[in-house]
Amino acid sequence: QVQLAESGGGSVQAGGSLRLSCAASGRTSSTYAMGWFRQAPGKEREFVAVIKWSGSTTRYADSAKGRFTISRDQAKNTVYLQMNRLKPEDTAVYYCAADPYYDGIRDYQYDYWGQGTQVTVSS
Q: Taking CA atoms, which of 29, 41, 96, 109 is between 20 and 30 Å from 2?
C-alpha cells in the first residue's frame, strides 16, 4: 500500500510563494499518477494539478496555470507543488493524492490520500 505525507504549508502574504512536498512510501511505479487537490472551508475538494510518476504528462486546473508547477523526484519518492503569486483564494487545505493508473481531475478517481497541509494566504 502507498502512504502519503504532505508538508510545506504555512501562512504567506498575497503575491508570495510556497513549496509543498508529498513524500510517498510503499511501492510505486511509472504508471502512477500523483495529484494535488485542495479544499477551502465550506467548499468541495477541487483539483489543482497532476503528474504521471514517469513525468511524461502534467495537467493543471485553470486557477493554477501559470502560477503553480508540479514536479516529482523519483529517487526521493516525492512530488512537489511550487506555488507562486499566491492569492487569498488559494487558501485551503492541500492534499496529495495518488492513483495506480489514472491522472484524472476528480477526487474519487484517486485511491490514496495524505492528511493535508494548511495553506493560508492573507491580503
A: 41
Place of cell 508570495: 16
Q: What is the DSSP string of 11-70?
A: EEETT--EEEEEEEES---TT-EEEEEEE-TTS--EEEEEEETTSS-EEE-TTTTTTEEE
Q: Going by C-beta distance under 8 Å and a sequence separation of 6 or more, which residues neighbour residue 120?
A: 10, 11, 12, 91
Work out whether the CA dihedral 32, 82, 89, 42 comes out positive or negative: positive
Q: What is the pLDDT of residues 74-113, one digit of tens each?
A: 889 999 999 999 999 999 999 999 999 999 999 999 999 9
Are 102 and 123 in contact, with CB atoms under 8 Å apart?
no
Q: How many Å separate Cα 71 from the centre of its chain?
A: 10
Count Cβ atoms below 10 Å from residue 18 Cβ, excluding itself: 20
Phi and psi at 76, nearest 5°, equal -100, 0
